[in-house]
Amino acid sequence: MLTVALTGGIGSGKSVAGKFFADLGALVVDSDELSREVIDRGTKGFDEVVTTFGDEILSAGAIDRKKLAQIVFSDDAKRRKLENIIHPRVREAFEAIVAKAKAGDIVINQIPLLVETSGGSRFNKIIAITSSIEARRSRLKERGMSDFEIEERMKSQVSESERLKIADYVLSNDGTKDELLNQVEKIFEQLRIDASKN
Ligand code: ADP
To answer: Does the pLDDT at position 139 exceed 90?
Structure first.
């Protein structure tokens, strides 16, 4: 079994690449999705977030992620508080998935904040996905994010060069989705070889 991190800034194409890897047979886990699940209603994470940030972050009894984002992306101390609630739980949830994986599985974790959380050492291999700021910005705008939201999120993430330093493999996503798929296929072949040695 091989554990692989797929990391990149917001809008770099992690979800698209993750889907391609899943189509090829990898077990793909999205940390963004886990980070929502660990604060779902009824979880300890939910209780902790509400205790920390107050009832005003609720909408119809559930955590309103937009409201929460507005609070934490403009206040570093609050952002760290939220991360301290969410990150350990996301790691735990990922470890539980890994514990259930089979011997030959390639488990890929789409994870935006790998460098920021010094999480690289938890994985056998790291893939960084890069894309120009302009391409990322225009894709995110198409997805409905405002300039302000994009800037705030980008500010809280490290630069591309920091990610490249820790990467075993690099996906360059400045072309078409087909061009990305070609690279994903090549890297997946390599990961199969890595997995067989592991
Ligand atoms: P991330 O998960 O890293 O935030 P996504 O994979 O969601 O990024 O990509 C952001 C947006 O850009 C999505 O709407 C996606 O469909 C689009 N996108 C990603 N890569 C490409 C590409 N090579 N060409 C065109 N659109 C792309």
So the answer is: yes
pTM of the model: 0.90
Neighbour count for residue 81 (Cβ, 10 Å): 16
Q: 137 CB less than 6 Å from ligand 1?
A: no
Nearest alpha carbon, ligand 1 atom 12: 139
The alpha carbon of 165 is separated from its chain's Cα centroid by a whole number of angstroms, namely 18
pLDDT digits (tens, 9 = 90+) for 177-194: 999 999 999 999 999 999
3-state helix, strand, coil split of the chain in percent (to 5) is 60, 15, 30
For residue 180 and ligand 1, the question of a CB distance below 6 A is answered with yes
Neighbouring-strand partners of residue 55: none
Nearest ligand 1 atom to the CA of 10 is 4
163 lines ligand 1 (CB under 6 A): no
80-127 per-position pLDDT tens digit: 999 999 999 999 999 999 999 998 999 999 998 787 777 778 999 999
Nearest residue (CA) to ligand 1, atom 4: 11
**CA pair distance 77, 130, nearest whole angstrom:** 28
- Rounded to whole angstroms, the Cα distance separating 120 from 57 reads 32
